[in-house]
Amino acid sequence: MTVGVLAICLEAVMGVGVSIFFLTLGAILKFAIEPDVFGQSVHMDIIGVIFMIVGGVGVVLSIVLAPKRGRTSDDRLMHRENNPPEI
C-alpha cells in the first residue's frame, strides 16, 4: 500500500472530530494516569503517545485533504434544463 492510498484511507475514516478525540485520549493516558496502573506488562504512557501521534496525523491529513474533498462535488454537478414535454 502506498503512502497516498494510506492517506486517503485514513482521511476517509478519520475526521477532525475523531482525530481530536484520539489526541485527548492520548493526552489523558500519557499525563493523567500512572504508567504502571495495569502492571509492568502494559505501558499506558506509550499507548498515550501512540494515540497522540495517530490523532495528530489525522488532524493534519483532514486539513490537507479537505480542499480536495470539497472540489470533487463541483465536478459532479449536472446541468438540467426545465423543458416541459411536448404534447
Structural class designation: mainly alpha
How do the helices and strands follow one another from N- to C-terminus? Answer: HHH
Termini separation comes to: 57 Å
Helix content: 55-70%
Percent strand equals: under 5%
The largest sheet, given as strand count, sense and whether it forms a barrel, is:
none
Global outline: rod-shaped
Look at the structure and give the mean pLDDT.
76
Rg from alpha-carbon coordinates: 22 Å
Count of β-strands: 0
Low-pLDDT ranges? none
The helix count comes to: 3
Structural features, described:
- The chain is mostly helical and about 90 residues long.
- About 70% of the residues lie in helices and about 0% in strands.
- It has helices at about 5-15, 15-30, 45-75.
- The radius of gyration is 22 Å and the shape is rod-shaped.
